[in-house]
TrEMBL record:
Signal sequence interval, chain numbering: none
Intracellular or extracellular location(s): Cell membrane
Main location: membrane
Transmembrane segments: 7-27, 47-71, 83-105, 154-172, 193-214, 226-250, 319-344, 356-379
GO cellular component: plasma membrane
Source organism of this protein record: Chryseobacterium polytrichastri
Membrane-topology annotation of the record: Multi-pass membrane protein
Domain of life: Bacteria
Protein name: Na+/H+-dicarboxylate symporter
Gene Ontology annotations of biological process type: dicarboxylic acid transport
InterPro entries: Na-dicarboxylate_symporter (IPR001991), Na:dicarbo_symporter_sf (IPR036458)
Keywords linked to the UniProt accession: Cell membrane, Membrane, Symport, Transmembrane, Transmembrane helix, Transport
Molecular functions (GO terms): symporter activity
Gene3D superfamilies membership: Sodium:dicarboxylate symporter
Amino acid sequence: MKGQNKLFIAIIIALIIGVGIGGVVHMQYPESAEPFSKNIKLLGTVFIRLVQMIIAPLVFTTLVVGIAKMSDIKMIGRVGTKAMLWFISASLMSLFIGLILVNWLEPGHVTKLPIQDVSSADELLKSSKGFSMEDFVKHVVPKSIFEAFATNEVLQIVVFSIMFGVALANMGEEYAQPVIKLFDIVAHAILKMVAYIMWFAPLGVLGAIAAVVAVNGFEIFKVYAIYLRDFFFALGVLWLVLLLVGYLILGNRLFELLKRIKAPLLIAFSTTSSEAVFPKLVEELEQFGCNSRVVSFILPLGYSFNLDGSMMYMTFASIFIAQIYGIEMTIGQQITMLLVLMLTSKGIAGVPRASLVIIVATCSMFGIPPEGIALILPIDHFCDMGRSMTNVLGNALATSAVSKWEGQLENPGVEV
């Protein structure tokens, strides 16, 4: 059995054990649920932090090497244009699917959710009030690359890396080659570290799942059953559309890609962090046959601009809150909201609970009580599992598609 399959099975086992342990604690030792959750969650925290530790240097080295090796500025522009066309199209499609299905299913009209204490949303309300174009620009353009590295601001690192890579590409091989070779070695060393860190994933999954189930139990699914059912149905529709487009571009190789990324998908689902699988996704896409230069260029951009699951969730949750409060929005208002979300959501991948922050800001703009976010906070973890998994799928498809369009998708013929 290959290591990839062993890791996948280990994660599945950890997921089941985590649900079981969390359920036992919730039912048998309810008084200990909070401290238990706080302590076992540390397993997930350690795993996430180990991954976060290597994201900044991995993005920087792979992106600089990828661009510098291209050496052809026209190629950089061509690949970037194709990537952005995919990102914009996929984002609009995701937003529209969320908008159409939330209006059709009307989860806010058929559910009777208990009104939550709005104090749970205070932190989000405060963080959303400062959202402005000035903050967006500050989030995108770095004032210090060291600060961007320290805070894992992926988009700022991408901006610096692209400029640095283009500069290297224009310096001539004599000057640039030693630097490119150094960064290439560093990138491969970091990818070697990925293999070690991923074996901590099962423990991270166990800790994250057990913590949530211990505190919330299984009742949380009953209380919000309709909302969760409708949201995951909408995610299923989005998956069908994404996979159909992927099949039209990749053909039967789509199934090979899905086998390759099954572990990253499951880790993203379990830990609610698409960031946690970034290094592993780089490795799997390159083994799938995607050009390493294309992977190192597109994937970091995708983590800021191509969050399909999060995009769909934004329209779904915003209209859901409006439905809960009995606020009827015209088609024109909803289309305007969609376009606003399209613009304001770009480049906020590094913001904690970014989707919720944007939802709060958007609700305020359209006269929907932003305190309504408290209604969905208790189950946001479960929704986040689905949207994180979808974000990973969307970025894997985007990278594979652009590699195919560039004629640089190899078929290594390696068994998965």
